[in-house]
Design goal:
By secondary structure, the protein is α+β, with helices and mostly antiparallel strands. It has one domain. Helix content is 23%, strand content 35%. Strands 1, 2, 3, 4, 5, 6, 7 and 8 form an 8-stranded mixed sheet that branches. Strand 3 and strand 4 form a beta hairpin. The N terminus is likely disordered.
C-alpha cells in the first residue's frame, strides 16, 4: 500500500471513529502510524506542495518560548498555549487558500481526571477549518481554528472555535 493510500485510510478511520474501513488497533496506535506516514509524505512532497500554496500561515507551536514562528500546513497545532492541554495532531490538509484552510485530524485534550497532572489524554476525530486572516510584520496568518466533531466529543466543555496566537 502506498503512503498516500495509507494516509487516506487513516483519515477515513479517524472520520469514522475507527469503526469501519478495516481499521485495526486503538486511536493511539493509529495516531503513531499516521505521524510516520505523514512525515514520509511531507518529506517526499514538500517542494512541489509549497509552490502552489497561498502565502497565509498559522502559529502551530505557541507552547514553546516566543518568538512564535509561522507554519504552512503544519502536522499539529497547539491550542492551549499556557499548559499545552489541547491541540490537533495528525493533520491532513485538503485545502489551503488566502482566506481559509481545511483538513482533518485528531483533537487531543488533557482529560484532567482525577486531576490534570495525573489525567489521561483523550483523542477525538475532527474536521478543522482555519479562518479569520490577519496581517502582521511576519506575514498573513490565520487567527481562528474551528473544529467539527466527526464522532464523540470530549467529556469536558471543549469549545468548537479557538482563537490562535499571533506570530511574535
Amino acid at each position: 500500500m502506498s503512503v498516500r493510500q495509507t494516509l487516506r485510510k487513516l483519515a477515513l478511520c479517524a472520520l469514522l471513529g475507527l469503526a469501519a474501513a478495516g481499521c485495526h488497533g486503538n486511536q493511539a496506535g493509529i495516531a503513531a502510524e499516521s505521524r510516520s506516514a505523514m512525515a514520509a509524505t511531507r518529506t517526499a512532497a514538500a517542494a512541489p506542495a509549497a509552490a502552489g500554496l497561498a502565502d497565509v500561515y498559522v502559529v502551530a507551536d505557541c507552547a514553546a518560548a516566543a518568538p512564535y514562528p509561522l507554519s504552512r500546513e503544519p502536522v499539529s497545532i497547539t491550542l492551549a498555549c499556557a499548559d499545552a492541554g489541547i491541540g490537533v495532531q495528525d493533520m491532513l490538509w485538503t485545502s489551503w487558500t488566502t482566506t481559509a484552510a481545511t483538513g482533518t485530524g485528531l483533537l487531543w485534550e488533557k482529560l484532567c481526571v482525577p486531576d490534570c497532572a495525573n489525567g489521561k489524554m483523550g483523542y477525538y476525530p475532527v474536521a478543522v477549518t482555519l479562518s479569520a486572516v490577519r496581517a502582521s510584520a511576519k506575514g498573513q496568518w490565520f487567527s481562528e481554528l474551528t473544529v467539527s466533531w466527526q464522532g464523540s466529543r470530549p467529556p469536558n466543555q471543549t469549545p468548537d472555535t479557538f482563537t490562535l496566537m499571533p506570530p511574535r
